[in-house]
Amino acid sequence: MIERFYLEDYLSFNKIELGFKNGLIIFSGPSGAGKSILFNSIVGSFGFKEIKAKLSELTISGSKIKNEDYLIDDDFSIKQITTTKTRHFLNNQTISKSDLQEFTKSFFKHLHLKDTSDFESDNVISFLDFLGALKFENYSLIHEQFQTIYKELKEIKHKLQKIYKDEQDIENLKEFARFEIDKIAKINPKIGEYEELKELKELMNKKEKVQKVLLEVKPFLDNTHKISQALNMLELDSSFFDDAINEVHNQFEKFYDKINSYDDMNIEETLDRIEELASLQKKYGSIEEAINYKKIKEKELEEYDNISFEKAILEKNYKKYSLEIEKVGLELTNLRKDALAILETDMNIFLRDLYLTNLTITLNNIELTKNGYDEVLFALNNTELKKLSSGEFNRLRLALLTARSIYECDQNGILFLDEIDANLSGKESESIAKVLKTLSKNYQIFAISHQPQLSSTADQHFLVEKIGEVSKVRELNDEERIAEISRMISGENITEEATLFAKTLLNH
Prior knowledge:
Layout: E1 2-10, E2 13-19, E3 24-28, H1 35-45, E4 55-60, E5 66-67, E6 72-73, E7 76-82, E8 86-90, E9 93-95, H2 97-104, E10 108-112, H3 121-135, H4 139-168, H5 170-187, H6 193-205, H7 207-222, H8 224-233, H9 239-261, H10 267-284, H11 287-305, H12 307-353, E11 359-369, E12 372-380, E13 383-384, H13 390-408, E14 414-418, H14 426-439, E15 444-448, H15 452-456, E16 460-467, E17 470-475, H16 478-490, H17 496-507
Parallel strand pairs: 3-15, 3-16, 10-14, 14-15
Antiparallel strand pairs: 1-2, 1-4, 4-7, 5-6, 7-8, 8-9, 11-12, 12-13, 16-17
Helix pairs in contact: 3-12, 4-12, 5-11, 6-10, 10-11, 12-13, 13-14, 16-17
């Protein structure tokens, strides 16, 4: 349960610290006092709402949770701090928002009565799979088999659809692939060839200039022996000069050897070749990428040639997996019906307390989807959901959420209920209070109340007030509860009858 909640600097709240007990905890107060802000700040501490309080901190006790990674053994803390960005901490260790949600979802649930998505077939199917895995030994195995076959079937279907589409224009595709292959094959590029030819082109461009310079320095080179003689006469070691001159001769000879090796080269053909390779580089990014693209097109062409053979195999496998998934899907449907019977029974128990009866939940057979062949349909006294009154719908929703929470929240779970008794009659509000009171024996429940019936059943009752621009919250004692419940009954001008009725509700 949540034992302590601390909040600092969040919207109209400056600083609050609250202690909570087990059971049903109610927040009430005038409109605009900050009840929803407070409520959302607690929910946001679990990572399920976006809040940017300077600091919020929860102390959880009696959770029976053990987690070695976060050094949790029953009691732990959850903290949220906002500076330039919002950070979450579990037992003073940093945790991402998504990981925090994953950690808390086994014991924390936020139920939105304004959100009707829990009645959507896919969501109910997901819960039935969860419930089935809890109740039936072979459920998980069959459900896993279905998912595996469905994934394989979906992949085969996707490949077949591509083949069928390709078949309509297969000749054009083959012709295009051949054209792309031939275009590159005709040039037949080699990796590194373009760079080598460019270097050669640059060499040929400067051939005449270099030869002219070499001719000009030839007289000097022919007389270098005289410099060596002069150095020797001066009794100086001329080896450094001789070595340098020899290196110069070597480099000049290399140049002549290189250009002589290209004497038979056709310059026009070389320039054309460079232009062809340059066009490939421009189109594909590099010669290597052009070669790889050619290989891809060759593989595609091979696949096009084998398309008939591949199609026959895929169609055979599609038929095989279709038969398998029908069989496994039927087993899954039958098990879901058993899980659905449990859900229907549990919901009808709660509905009787909510003055509603005769709920039926059925599985309708539909075309294959990722969830099988099943669609969930609800009816109350043979009336479909969209034709129910808002009061009936809200109470039916509460029965569904309460029945689900039995299995989705472990013992000592925490439930948050949004606007649970808004716009309800006294009788309806009383019935909701009865259901929640029963449920609060196992779960710590938080709710904002607008009605005296639910508020009077609370194990803890907190009043949220706004003084100026600042919201305050405090736990009410017995006398203060009488006054607050009387205000709910008669408004700001509290009557004697309202006070008497408030006392009767609290005594009851």
